[in-house]
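Subject: Protein entry, chain in single-letter code together with its fold tokens

Category: Structural biology, sequence-to-fold work with a learned token vocabulary.

Notation: Tokens come from a learned vocabulary of local backbone shapes, not from coordinates.

Start of record: The labelled sequence and token lines come straight after this line.
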Amino acid sequence: MSSFDAEMNAMLDRLGAANDGFVVAALYKFVSLDDIDGLRQTLQQLCDKNQILGTILLAEEGINGTIAASRDGMAQCLNWLEADGRFEQLSLKFSFSPDQPFLRMKVRPKREIVTMGCPEINPAKRTGTYVDPKDWNGLIADPDVLLVDTRNSYETAIGMFAGAVDPMTTNFREFPEWAHSLANQPADRRPTKIAMYCTGGIRCEKASALMQDMGFDEVYHLKGGILKYLEDVPPANSQWQGECFVFDGRVAVDHDLQPGSYNMCHACRMPLSADDLAHADFEDGISCPHCKPDLDPERAARFAERQKQMRLAAERGEAHLGIDPRRKKTSPSTPQSD
């Protein structure tokens, strides 16, 4: 048993996860990679062989992905990753889903494993200070610390750390502009300490490297992100409020890392609360309060036809993949795991 495998089993045992569900692993590492195409083919074959679904991104700067499989299938993948020396100290966060949260498996080459649009920033060479979840509450209690959520507005809408600043971005490529505005503040208004967090740690790690490049000296980021914090910090001691958005069929997870209370609009991919589902603008698979005002008749007809085909497939007991939302053009109402 590999150390990754042991970590997975220990975490799932703490959750009381059933053996017949699906292990969900969020993973990343900033590390120099070459032979991207060969690595892509190997990982695709490994995942297909072990019935693993999800997405893995590969770039010269490293690896990033979220995948789901049975315990045995996930163990095969983790054993392979650990055997490759480049992926030692891979950042891993585990959660559980009773159902497979992904529709397909993709291993994709990219320019960046998390797209910020600043190719000069290299977290493998320079980054902020990691803060373990057990030490996070103490750090953010410091009145001199500016707490920044590096996620997007559709994520922050359903959960944040108490007192965090929301940059109100629609994708991570917008974060540098917000960071520049902070860096250009007068000296007496610039924060002396910055603490940042994101879902699994990758965006805040890259953002911390950016902030250091802009001249901020004391920059901290939550090791393992929100998911690791929810895993390690008991709810009674937690500063987390709400649920954590995740980029799969669960939509969100609660403090116990179990599927949360939100659904998703299959038209615009926004998370939907119970109130949203009861709203007059909600029509399953076609519209919701977030997208109905901008929905034109052509798109509405296309979504209605897709919903019909999904219903017919379900009646036949067949899977229907529908569209891949991550192939749509990024917009304020189109979440992407960047």
About this structure: The CA atoms of residues 277 and 288 lie 8 Å apart. Residues 323-336 have pLDDT under 50 and may be disordered.
